[in-house]
Amino acid sequence: MTKLRTRLRPAALRWWPEIWSTRLLAPTRAGRIWVVTVAGCLAIKHWIPLLRQTAVPMRIRGIGTVWLSDWSQLMVAWEVFSMHTYSEHPLPDDATTILDLGANVGLASLFFRLRYPGARIVAVEADPAVARLAERNLRGWGVDVVNAAVAPAAGIVTLHRQPGQSWASSTVFGKGEPVDVKAVALDTLIDQLGGVSILKLDIEGAEHDVIAASRRLDAVDCIVGEVHPVEGSSADRFFAMLGAFDVVTGPMVDGNGTFVARRRLGGGGVPASGNSGET
Asked: How far, in Å, are 92, 143, 248, 250 from residue 261 at the CA level?
């Protein structure tokens, strides 16, 4: 117990500002108290391996109850619904098909469902345990969940799980608990949908090889997501592969940052669907 207290004290001091900021996810005082309580529990759970897979409920304004099993999933909720990560760059006015790669527990898909109520949405998540939570959170929202990693080609790949931090699990960065998972190619998903209005891309470094291998980006209207630094590539090289798109980035730190890429009119191919959203 003494060792646990020794580990928890610096964690509590380090995470308290973020724990307090999560209160913005709830509209009422009682709701804010509950959100901060859940945030504290998830921070503590990070240091107790036996509790890491236990999901806890939390209500989010405009969404209802979602289930979270680790601290990073709460941070995703905070980024999506409080910091408005997917609203900081201009998105299309309309969308008919949305492909959410690196769906985690489905929170970005919920954001897209609220913004585009008539769209078909497919959420793809590599980690089987996290994908089960995504299915739970997206039940009744009309979102299809696919449990697979996205890779340059179909097959089996090794996912490196980050204990207590599911948003950092990666098929590229070799730290964490290894688990073999099914992989699907991006072009297969695009073809199955008949084109993609919005491709959300947050796959922890795999985006470099996945985009390099794709031959169907002409069927994608808009890409929004995060680029990560990987050995042998860079953000500039990644964006150079999106030559038919106009790219706008957020602040980039050591090659890591958010971006949106909108297909340029006449930039090679006709928009797959929806409204180009030019303003």
From this structure: 11, 23, 6, 12
